[in-house]
Amino acid sequence: MTKSFTDKLGKGGYGTVYKGSLPNGHPVAVKMLTESKGNGEEFINEVASISRTSHVNIVRLLGFCLDGSKRALIYDFMPNGSLEKFIFTDRSQIESTLGWNKLFEIVVGVARGLEYLHRGCNTRIVHFDIKPHNILLDQDFCPKISDFGLAKLCTSKECIISLIGARGTIGYIAPEVFSRNFGVVSSKSDVYSYGMMVLEMVGGRKNLDVTTTSSSETYFPHYLYKNINQYCVEACGDNGEATEIVRKMILVALWCIQTMPDDRPSMSRVVNMLEGDISDLQLPPKP
């Protein structure tokens, strides 16, 4: 299937992904999980959660293999790889490859995928690791949420989750996941991660950049909050349509990264905000 694991697509904290093909020639991505992960919680999480899903913006699990300590997950192959490689690059290169309209379509697609996980599938699912690396792009750059190794299934309507320790990736983890003083852990934790990811898509940079020469630009969300109009003009020039798209992405993302979970919109509300009129969007309190 993988030609002796010769075509490596990438490597992460939970294992290595290889390109392969089924007997009928269908291209697949085979994720070999690291053997030293104890009782294999990440494997069980991924199979249990993603097997419950069926949505255009969720990567499709085709099968899995469990042989002793060896564990593998088989997914549809995504020819354009992860979103990460497209956004953390030169701004002009991003615009020539994707353009603001396509970036906005990706933002909306991920929002719909998360809305489905939180409300639409049989068992509500909180992903807990939304970031550019975990958004895969098919041949048409349609986004697919992937890597459910940290996901939690919710049985109650409110989907309040009990966690032992923080989970996720630094830079995208909601405050309440670190400290319950900020509120309960719930699907709103994914909303925060989503907002941080969208701001990185807008800026083509990490939200926390310690290498920048300007202290005011070190934390990008605060810089955007104070300079949203200026940034939209700098990013889009006199392209009115692109300026509106970028402004909408920024405003929605700033609502998503509010410190207190109750102040963040649900993903259903996020989808409505993105698809609605920009005149209906107000600048939120400073996150």
UniProtKB/TrEMBL annotation:
<feature type="domain" description="Protein kinase">
    <location>
        <begin position="3"/>
        <end position="287"/>
    </location>
</feature>
<dbReference type="GO" id="GO:0005524">
    <property type="term" value="F:ATP binding"/>
</dbReference>
<keyword id="KW-0067">ATP-binding</keyword>
<keyword id="KW-0812">Transmembrane</keyword>
<dbReference type="InterPro" id="IPR008271">
    <property type="entry name" value="Ser/Thr_kinase_AS"/>
</dbReference>
<dbReference type="GO" id="GO:0016020">
    <property type="term" value="C:membrane"/>
</dbReference>
<dbReference type="GO" id="GO:0004674">
    <property type="term" value="F:protein serine/threonine kinase activity"/>
</dbReference>
<keyword id="KW-0472">Membrane</keyword>
<feature type="binding site">
    <location>
        <position position="31"/>
    </location>
    <ligand>
        <name>ATP</name>
    </ligand>
</feature>
<keyword id="KW-0547">Nucleotide-binding</keyword>
<protein>
    <recommendedName>
        <fullName>Protein kinase domain-containing protein</fullName>
    </recommendedName>
</protein>
<keyword id="KW-0732">Signal</keyword>
<keyword id="KW-1133">Transmembrane helix</keyword>
<dbReference type="Pfam" id="PF07714">
    <property type="entry name" value="PK_Tyr_Ser-Thr"/>
</dbReference>
<dbReference type="InterPro" id="IPR000719">
    <property type="entry name" value="Prot_kinase_dom"/>
</dbReference>
<dbReference type="InterPro" id="IPR045874">
    <property type="entry name" value="LRK10/LRL21-25-like"/>
</dbReference>
<dbReference type="InterPro" id="IPR017441">
    <property type="entry name" value="Protein_kinase_ATP_BS"/>
</dbReference>
<keyword id="KW-0808">Transferase</keyword>
<keyword id="KW-0418">Kinase</keyword>
<dbReference type="InterPro" id="IPR011009">
    <property type="entry name" value="Kinase-like_dom_sf"/>
</dbReference>
<comment type="similarity">
    <text>Belongs to the protein kinase superfamily.</text>
</comment>
<keyword id="KW-0325">Glycoprotein</keyword>
<dbReference type="InterPro" id="IPR001245">
    <property type="entry name" value="Ser-Thr/Tyr_kinase_cat_dom"/>
</dbReference>
<keyword id="KW-0723">Serine/threonine-protein kinase</keyword>
